[in-house]
Amino acid sequence: MKKVIKIGLISLLVLAVISTIVYKAVNKAPSAELAQNEQVLEIFKAGGCIDCHTAEPELPFYAEFPVIGGMVKKDSQDGYKAFDITGLMAALENGAVADPVDLAKVEKVVLDDRMPMFKYYIMHWGSSLNAEERDIVLDWAKNARASLYADNVAEAYANEPIRPIAEELPYDADKAALGYMLFHDTRLSLDNTVSCASCHDLSTAGVDNHQYSHGVDDQLGGVNAPTVYNAVYNFVQFWDGRAKTLADQAAGPPLNPVEMASESFDQIIAKLEQDKEFAAEFAAVYPDGLTEANITDAIQQFEYTLLTPNSRFDKWLRGDAEALTAEEIEGYELFKKYDCATCHNGPIAGGLSYELMGHRNEYFAERGLEMTIEDNGRYKETQLERDRHRFKVPGLRNVEHTWPYYHDGTRITLEDAVRDMGYYQSDVKMTDSEVAKVTAFLKTLTGEHQGFAITTTNSVDDIYGHDDEHDDEHGHDDEQ
Predict the structure, then answer these.
(1) Which residues lie closer than 8 Å to 240 by C-beta, 6 or more apart?
(2) Chain centroid to CA 304: how far?
C-alpha cells in the first residue's frame, strides 16, 4: 500500500513538473523586438479574446457537444454582449490608438485578473497572462492613454481615465453669436412657443429638470433631455446616436412633431427672413444667407462654446491636492473599483460609447413601466439585436444638477441613480456609505461656464450679459 501511495505521489509530482514546463512553454511573452501594439495584439490572439468577443467567433469542435457546448455558446454570447473587441484588434493591427473606452475596459480586466475565465484557460493553456504579459498590456494602456490626451494633468494623475475639460475649443465667434440667438429663438417652432433653450436651459445646467420635455401644444417627448453643456465631447448625439455631429442634432428638434413641430426648414427660414435686421446680420456672416445647413452650423458653433471647465476634480487632476476631500477621493476610487470608469471616462466622464442598459442585471423587467420604442436605444437605428437597450453613455459633468436621471428619467436623486447603476451595470449592491462617497465624488465634476459656477439658479443674463430689445422682441427669452 505504501508503495502504491509513493508511486502515486511521484506520478503527481512528475505530472506537476511536466505541466509547469508545458505551461511556461505556451505562455511565453511576445518578443521585445516587436512594437508594443504588436506585442499586445499577439497576447490578445494567444489569449483567445476573439473566441468570445466578436459577432462571429470561431467556436471549438466541442461547442456542438451536449451540455458543454451550451456553456461554450453562452459564454461566447455573453462575452460579445459585454465587449466587442473587433475595433480594438483592428486598431492594434493598424498601429492606431485604441478607443478610450476599449482601453479602459481592457486595462480594468487585466488589473482585476478577470480574463480569461478559469473554465476557458484550463482548456487553453496559452490563454492566461503571465506577469510579464500583464505588465506589457498595462504599460501599453498607459502609453496609449498618454497619446490620447494633451491636457496638462499632473504627473501623479497622468493615467487617470477621466480627463480635464478644455478651457476653450476652436470656434467661429461671429457664427457662434448667431447660434446663440437661434438657440433662444422660438421661431424655430411651429407656433413660436418653443426654442432649443426651452429644453436645454443654460441657467439650469443645460437641461429642463423634467422627466420628459414639453414641446409644442405641451406634448411630451419620449426620452429625458440630456444636457447641452459639453455636448461637443460626445462621439455622437442623442441617446440612440442617430446624429453624428452637433449640427445634425440641431436639425432634428425643429422638425420633430412632438418637440418644435415645424413642417420644414423652408417654413422656418421664411419666418426668419421677415426679420430684415436678423437676416442682414446672418448674411454678413454666411454669404449664402439663411439655409438649413447654415442655421444648424451656427447653432453648432455656439455649442462649441458650452464648456464647463475648472471643476474641483479638474483642479485636483492638475495638481491641486487640496481640491478634493478624503471622502471624495474615496468615492472616486470606488467609482473605478466598481467599473464605472470603464464607460464613464474621458473629458466628460462618458459620451464615448454605446453601452447596454442592464449589463449585469435585468433593468427593464424590474422597472415596472411599459416598454416604449425609445427603450430600444441604438437598436432603433441599426436593427441589430445586440444594440437593443444599448444607449450612448451620458457624460457625468455637472450631474448633480441634471436630474432626473437615465434615458427614461426614472431616478430623481443622484444617490438613487448611483445605487441602481451599481446594481444593474456592475452587479454590486453598494452600501449607503459607498453611495454617499461616490455621490460626493460626482459632485466634484461640477464646473463653471464663463466664470460662473454651474448651478440651477444662474440666469442666462448673468452668464452672457445678453439683454437687448432685439432678443426679447423675437423670442430669445433668457428665462425659458
Answers:
(1) 374, 376, 377, 378, 380, 381, 391, 392
(2) 18
At residue 32's C-alpha, the angle toward residues 26 and 36, to 5°, is 100
User: SS3 for 170?
Assistant: coil
**Three cell numbers written together for 419:** 445605487
Q: Is 418 exposed, middle or buried (0-12, 13-18, 19+ CB in 10 A)?
A: buried
* Bridge-based pairing state of the strands 390-392 and 448-449: unpaired
Would you mind telling me the total number of residues written for the chain in this entry?
480
Active-site residue, 259 included: yes
Phi, psi for 237 (deg, rounded to 5): -115, 160
Asked if residue 254 has a cis previous peptide bond (ω within 30° of 0), the answer is: no
Structure confidence by residue, pLDDT tens digits, 57-115: 888 787 888 888 888 888 889 899 999 999 999 999 999 999 999 999 999 999 999 98
- Residue 335's identity, in one-letter code, is F
**Which residues, in sequence order, are bridge partners of residue 201?**
207
Smallest Cα–Cα separation from 350: which of 460, 442, 253? Answer: 442
One-letter amino acid of 456: T
Phi, psi of 94, deg, nearest 5: -95, 0
The terminus-to-terminus CA distance of the chain in angstroms comes to 90
For residue 452, the surrounding DSSP H or E stretch is strand 452-453
Is residue 154 within 8 A of residue 53, CB to CB? The reply is no
Domains in the chain: ranges and CATH: 2-148 (no CATH), 173-306+453-473 (1.10.760.10), 312-449 (1.10.760.10)
Cα 1 to Cα 15, 79, 128, 462: the distances in Å are: 21, 49, 39, 92
Cell of 465: 450679459
DSSP for 74-90? HHHHHHHHH---HHHHH
State how far the Cα of 352 lies from the Cα of 336, in Å rounded to an integer. Answer: 17
Cell matching residue 377 = 436605444
With 70 as the cut, is the pLDDT of residue 412 above it? Answer: yes
How distant is the alpha carbon of residue 379 from its chain centre?
Answer: 17
Coil, helix or strand at residue 356: strand
- Grid cell digits, residue 41: 495584439
Residue 462 neighbours by CB distance under 10 Å: 14
3-class SS of residue 390: strand
Which residue of the set 107, 160, 259, 434 is catalytic?
259
Query: Whole-angstrom Cα distance, residue 190 to residue 216?
Result: 8
Q: pLDDT tens for residues 326-370? A: 999 999 999 999 999 999 999 999 999 999 999 999 999 999 999
Vertex 379 angle, CA 373 and 382, to 5°? 130
